[in-house]
Amino acid sequence: MSRYQPRPPSILDWPRTVVYYLYAALATLALGLWGLPQVLVRPERAHRVASLWLGQMLGAARLILGVRVEYRGTPPAGDCIVASKHQSFLDILALAHACPRRAFVMKREVLRVPIMGWFARKVGCIPIDRARGKEAMKQIIAEVETARARPQGLGQLIIYPEGTRTRPGQKLPYKHGASTIQRATGLPIHPVAVNCGLFWPRRGFPIRGGTAVVEFLAPLHAGPRSAAATELLEERIEPASDRLLAEAGGLTVR
After folding, report:
1. CATH of the domain spanning 13-247
2. Closest Cα partner for 250 from 193, 203, 197?
3. What is the pLDDT of residue 107?
């Protein structure tokens, strides 16, 4: 069996998953309490605390679950938009760990999550109220421009073009968020393909071991109109994600 294929199902998958989530909750509480006074004094330390937390989450995934992440391509380091296929919590962890100054466009409900929601805002994540439509996009663009004007810049703004998690092999229409932000700001878009959902299902149970792949593809620079840029983005991400699924045997965890 290839190391890229998910480990065969086991009765131990469920207890391993439970143990991992218990550890994640305790580590989040401990690091959150440790980092809180540091960030209150020096807000720029929020990314350092986030990096430590991400390292803990991915390290525990290796030790407890047998889940590893292989990166391909070159993660961006400057101000940009990162547009990724989204299949599970694993790709959130992996992308954030690869990007040194990560910030997500995320559902505003995440801000209500204890500890995590507070730190998410401190690292520059942008909450979105989908019900507001065009007004929500104007808010995102305004926050992006404000962040770019700061000495440290924006960082890597991570956005999921489909707007939600999908099962491996599932395709949803791409939304225009990433390309609209690019049109307004001129920032490059770095497409990302993943196969994380084969190992870590979108609902989080049960998790299976193996080596997930996160692949950074060639960037899409400003130029095409929003609709054309969205189409180009889909044309890059979907075939690459399908290729990663095929490499891992094309198995689907539901």
Report:
1. 3.40.1130
2. 197
3. 80
Q: How far apart are CA 128 and CA 145, in angstroms?
A: 16
pLDDT in tens, 56-110: 999 999 999 999 999 999 999 899 999 999 999 999 999 999 999 999 988 877 7
In angstroms, the CA 42 to CA 100 distance is 18
The sheet with strand 80-84 has its strands ordered as 67-72, 210-216, 189-194, 80-84, 156-159, 102-107, 126-128
- For the chain, which residues make up each domain, given as ranges? 13-247
Print the SS3 string covering 145-209. Answer: HHHHCCCCCCCEEEECCCCCCCCCCCCCCCCCHHHHHHHHHCCCEEEEEECHHHCCCCCCCCCCC
Cβ count near 233 (within 10 Å): 23
3-class DSSP state for residue 254?
Answer: coil
